[in-house]
Inverse folding.
């Protein structure tokens, strides 16, 4: 990147951060009127601040995307333009959710250390301003030019934040003796279920960006295979979202079918993505084989040896899957040029 352009972008980011702080503070002053509020619990700061920061972060991403990527899709055919716009909408929702859950988790952490702490309306407004500034800066920076590996990192971070918040607020403290689905039970289950829904959206979006990168690398000749890759990642995300939409207490059969389907679809999507990336580098092959062996070992340690519960196996499976995805997108980042590639095809599947 040109030095002067980089400095101009950084200046814009500083101003955007300041504006997000101002918007968050003003919204906090309006919403948080009344007696002092604790950090967590009924009538606390966390929930309204999370909403304010999430909305500001989403707005910051939209503004940045329009500001820095205006006209990028003009020369593209309709199907390619639609894919780009749908991904942008999904990312807007994702950045709002990541920011909101980060605020909620921060409220739980600080609430545990700051016993009996309360903040008046002005103090709460300043907290809202700081949260909005952090989330807004992160989102604004992403809008400048988010890459596939950035999305994979965002997915990993969001799953971690959402799951930790769900664990901290779980109705059953012994959920870990069974499986992660127990986190979605009861009135507090919305945290875990919501995490799965947004994570499903992020999975599908990562898949769309993987397809974008594969097209930049291989061109229109590989569009059929790339379309299948994007569809499989989209189906993986949809299945994960169903796991969140249908908690185990609502419909056990649908819940488990969706959960198993997520794992199967992830494996198929990973294999096809590797295949479309013709002649995959040695690093990716080693990672694929090694993680596959570790997954088999993890299953054997769970059953028949019974070394840990289903929750432990689920955590290992998700961790290994995310490690593979991170390796894959980092390989793509090395191979793929960082410039848009306009398709010469008016239709996705026909020339």
């Amino acid at each position: 990147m040109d030095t002067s352009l980089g400095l101009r972008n950084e200046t814009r980011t500083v101003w955007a951060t300041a504006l997000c702080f101002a918007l968050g503070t003003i919204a906090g002053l309006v919403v948080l009127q009344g007696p002092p509020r604790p950090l967590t619990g009924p009538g606390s700061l966390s929930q309204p601040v999370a909403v304010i920061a999430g909305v500001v972060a989403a707005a910051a991403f939209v503004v940045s995307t329009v500001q820095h990527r205006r006209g990028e899709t003009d020369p593209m055919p309709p199907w390619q333009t639609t894919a780009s716009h749908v991904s942008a909408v999904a990312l807007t929702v994702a950045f709002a959710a990541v920011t909101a859950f980060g605020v909620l988790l921060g409220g739980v952490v600080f609430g545990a250390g700051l016993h009996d702490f309360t903040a008046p309306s002005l103090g709460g407004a300043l907290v809202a301003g700081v949260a909005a500034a952090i989330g807004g800066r992160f989102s604004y920076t992403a809008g400048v030019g988010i890459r596939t590996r950035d999305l994979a990192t965002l997915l990993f971070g969001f799953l971690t934040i959402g799951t930790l918040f769900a664990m901290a607020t779980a109705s059953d403290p012994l959920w870990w003796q069974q499986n992660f689905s127990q986190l979605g039970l009861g009135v507090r289950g919305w945290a875990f279920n919501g995490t799965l829904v947004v994570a499903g959206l992020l999975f599908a979006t990562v898949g769309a960006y993987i397809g974008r990168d594969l097209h930049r690398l291989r061109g229109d000749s590989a569009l059929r295979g790339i379309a299948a890759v994007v569809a499989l990642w989209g189906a993986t995300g949809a299945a994960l979202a169903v796991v969140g939409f249908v908690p185990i207490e609502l419909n056990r059969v649908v819940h488990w079918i969706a959960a198993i389907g997520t794992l199967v679809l992830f494996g198929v999507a990973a294999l096809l993505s590797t295949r479309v990336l013709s002649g995959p580098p040695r690093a990716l092959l080693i990672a694929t084989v090694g993680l596959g062996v570790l997954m088999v070992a993890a299953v054997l340690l769970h059953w028949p040896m019974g070394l840990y519960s289903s929750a432990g196996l689920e955590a290992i499976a998700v961790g290994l899957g995310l490690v593979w995805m991170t390796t894959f997108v980092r390989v793509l980042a090395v191979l793929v040029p960082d410039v848009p590639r306009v398709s010469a095809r008016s239709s996705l599947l026909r020339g």
